User: Fold this.
Amino acid sequence: MIQLTTPISEEAAAKLQVGDTVEISGYILCGRDAVLPKVLKMIEEGTAGELGVDLHGQVIFHTAVSPAGVGPTSSNKLEIESSIGPLSKAGIKLHLGKGELHRETIEALDRNNAVYAVIPPVTALLGSRTSEEKVIAFPELGMEALHMIKVDRYPAIIGAAHGRSIYEKQ
Assistant:
């Protein structure tokens, strides 16, 4: 089990391989299809600094934050998957979610030394490993706003790294 603490360094991201199991600790961002296009617009406009968090080395979990807890949503939804390349270019090192990604997305991860990890849909376990949460931006989106949560040993499996995918036939 590889222990990762946020922010994730370029060196740590470069060492991760498809199939590695990791546990993530520290602060991570949470966002899904409603908020990620808004974050991309801020990056394009050069206003991402207004989020109050440095994206470089960050982890983004494709989830909403609700009273029921957090659990992964499908990362291959158009609004989510199309954000992975630009967010990686902006400094995000690890994308957490579920589902198979397209080849173009895997290549974008590789170009930006970023990885994608599949997190099991275990809301109860993740709830017990989440100690803080706050809305960072777009509070009008409710549970789909951009959140930051503090996590301790979130389990995940690296699903795409360095141009390879766990979903590819070997």
User: Anything to note?
Assistant: The longest strand covers residues 146-161. The domain at 2-162 is CATH 3.20.130.10 (fumarase). The longest helix spans residues 78-89. Helices lie at 10-15, 36-45, 78-89, 103-111, 123-128.
